[in-house]
């Protein structure tokens, strides 16, 4: 193998740059040429390839976003789009790929591998942490810390005004962010796509808490069954007697300088992805389980469901009393 490509795809995540840097530097260390593919699969179809040298990735380990840009490609969902992408990769002499992204990225990677036998290693990069085969995804730790810091500020104003806040965090299909943020910000209730919120019970709990707490915070994952913070608030209204406000944290959770934990994970997995390609591995996602680098078939990473530790729910409800 002489030349490999690296790309980021889907929603950006803090730490993607640190991962690109690790791929480029380890590739060059091993005598490879590195091609950066801009705008993910869309750029693969459009032939947006750039040469990357060791210095091309200087001063990016601390930067959020992705220097390679990213996109969600509709064209790549078609057989024709994928054939065009494979043709472009071959004519650019790319012999292997490192794909940094989430479930959508890995669905695309699986198809590229099945249809065009393109050697490919996936690296989990998404704030959602919803990939099977890794304890954490790149960007998750930063997103949780960003949301927690924002909620600490909301707590100040909630307490000053004796208010109830519904705070929506990201997570269309998974509640990992919501649960970790809920516990670390001391929230009163956490609603996620994985759980059912009984509205009558929640009203009762809020009425009970109003007796001894002057303010409260409910964390709502965007993919929660009622449809997010706005809809959940609409169902409860002021039933508990609280004056309430709604705050949607949104894309603020996707930006910012990655935490040390995300930079380390990204560096480790980026290096491991290149090593894996050089060893002849393909169709795998490199992740970290119990502190060790591990490999999981790409397809399992997005078809198997990673579950939230049940003990965290218990913890959240004990601590919210
Ligand atoms: O997958 C990451 C994520 O941030 C989800 O949590 C969120 O639902 C989605 O991306 C938002 O995507 P977009 O930036 O395309 O609106």
CATH first level of the largest domain: which class?
Alpha Beta
Number of helices in the DSSP assignment: 11
Shape: elongated
User: How many structural domains can be distinguished in the coordinates?
Assistant: 2
Rg over C-alpha atoms, rounded to the nearest angstrom: 21 Å
In the CATH hierarchy, the third-tier topology of the largest domain is known as Rossmann fold
| Backbone structural class | alpha/beta
Strand order of the largest sheet: 3-2-1-4-5-10-11
Report low-confidence residues grouped into runs of 5 or more: none
The end-to-end distance, rounded to whole angstroms, is 58 Å
- Supply the CATH architecture of the largest domain: 3-Layer(aba) Sandwich
Question: What portion of residues belong to β-strands?
Answer: 15-25%
List the ions, cofactors and other small molecules found in this model.
6-O-phosphono-beta-D-fructofuranose
**Mean of all residue-level pLDDT scores:** 97
- What's the order of the H and E elements? EHEHEHEHEHEHEHEHEHEEHH
Instruction: State the helical fraction.
Output: 40-55%
Q: Please give the number of β-strands.
A: 11
